[in-house]
Amino acid sequence: MISLIRNELMKMFQRKSSLIYLIIIVLAVIAGGIIYNKVVGEPNENWQAEVKAEISQMQQDSKEASGEEKQFINNQIEQKQKYLDENINPNAVSNWHFMNDVVYGMTMLVSLLAVIVCSASVSSEFADGTIKQLLIRPHQRWAILLSKYLSLIIYSLMLVATLIAAGYLVGLVIYGNGDFSAKIFDMAIDGQKETAVGPQFFLKIAFYLPSLLIITAIAFMLSTLFKSQALAVGIGIFVLFISSSLGGLIVVLADKYEWAKYLIFPHLDLTVYALQDKILGDITLPISLTILAVYYAFFMAMTFVFFQRRDISI
Amino acid sequence: MAANALEVRSLTKVIGRKKIVDDVSFSVHKGEIFGLLGPNGAGKTTIIRMIVSLIKRTDGAVMVNGNNLDGQFKETMSEIGAIVENPEFYKYMSGYKNLKHYANMAIKDVSDERIKEVARLVKLEDAIHQKVKTYSLGMRQRLGVAQALLHNPSLLILDEPTNGLDPQGIREFRDYLHSLAREGISVLVSSHLLSEMQLMCDRFAIIEKGKLIHISSMNETMDEAEAAEVVFEVSNSKKAVELLKGQAAAANVKVITDDQFSVSVEKSAVSTINKLLIVNDIDVYGISRVTATLEDRFLEITNKEVKEA
């Protein structure tokens, strides 16, 4: 099995695209660092005075406003006051803030690149006709497919590792080594949550990994279903974007229909659990993980059963 | 008794309601080149793909050196080297890396020395480190042979191996197959090119509409043909033809030129005709048998099948 995986990795890295994707991530992080630095600017030493001034300005506005607007402004004042009470600089910048604000957001890019590579994996062997030379070897089909899948997992993790390493280095160059456990407020659906910046970043990455696993499993399944590489990659990317944009619709659906909670889409983004304990009313992290595990088992079973039975007649 | 290199027993493939391959059985002896012959779409490729397990068998068994493919998949597959239609390679890798890739998948250890040796054997040693996308079709075909031979298989299975090769390439390929067979490697080869099979194979089977309709050795086929065309060179062909028209043994008597005519007769009747001509004062300068090509034979066999059906 190890020699099969080594073969798959060799094929992967003999392709220029696999290396280019890693470079794209590094370039994106560098660009993100430069833009973030321009927009956020240098850390402000006098932030307390500034926040106080903002609050008094808002209190003025609040007197003049009425109804919902007044409510909204009061909420804002409350939040600003929290920063003062907890002594947290809302505009603080450090390499860890950069990681949490910008680098984490780039996991979307990792998902996209992982989907492209995974959905091309088996379909490209079909498109090039190399699949028939591959399957006349003294190895069972499932073993060959498994070696492909495992090498894709290794590559996906390399993408994530590249993102984190590049983020850390770029942050280090621009801001120097900041306070790993600086306190921040992170935005959640039901208000703000006080947390430490470094651990929050790694918590979000940890919650991101299961969804990466599922997304790549779907892409891998597509790549065994289609003989055309372009079709497999196209549908893979389509599924990726559909799943990230369906979230809002599912929330509405789940209010009306209980079954909507068990669709895969609301569980694909587990990072909400880094900020809150429940989604869709009563769904907790273990429930979400169980639902994902069921879907994962289903996708994998489909992939392997289909591939095992398939007649190779290209 | 030593087992056959390949034994195929009542191989059947049904897709939907259609029988693509219908109860095909044959065997390939050790050191023999065996041809599967048939028009396009007859099921040759499906048979070959079932033997190398690219396509699932609906029914039937495949034995290689006495090992059953079902029970001993790994042992059986490591005895087989195959090219299935045009050999496809990872074009973005060098020829050497491609071979290395397949060497890694072999059960028996394939050394780097062996890879170089095989590359030399197919005359690719100068280009082996170039990317496959720079290779010509002939070079790819040779690399295909190299990957099939890499792990020292005892049975070589080639599906339409000369597709896309130029005449020079075809000839080299044929010579190469003969030298492999002399070394004791058995070869199963399929083609729709009859003339080529005639030069390549020791024995062959004809497949039509998924059925095996004929199986014999190349020499048998040529001799067995009931009536062959014979050309006589004589002093007066018109007179000779008049004479022969009354004879039952001679059919299709035709004047070719003033001193040549042709006639379809069985082998034994040739001398009878000769005697008849001489007795009737016609000088005979030459008798030559027009060798029936495999193509004629093939059409003869398949046409007979059609009539019987």
UniProtKB/TrEMBL annotation, chain A:
Taxonomic lineage of the native organism: Bacteria, Bacillati, Bacillota, Bacilli, Bacillales
Name of a matching Pfam family: ABC2_membrane_2
Keyword Oxidoreductase: no
Membrane-spanning ranges: 20-37, 102-128, 149-175, 205-223, 230-254, 283-307
Keywords: Membrane, Transmembrane, Transmembrane helix
Domain of life: Bacteria
Descriptive protein name: ABC-2 type transport system permease protein
From TrEMBL, chain B:
The keyword tRNA-binding is assigned to this record: no
Pfam families: ABC_tran
Keyword flag Nucleotide-binding: yes
SMART domains in UniProt: AAA
Superkingdom assignment: Bacteria
PROSITE patterns reported in the protein's UniProt record: ABC_TRANSPORTER_1, ABC_TRANSPORTER_2
SUPFAM superfamilies in the cross-refs: P-loop containing nucleoside triphosphate hydrolases
Name of the molecule in the record: ABC-2 type transport system ATP-binding protein
Lineage: Bacteria, Bacillati, Bacillota, Bacilli, Bacillales
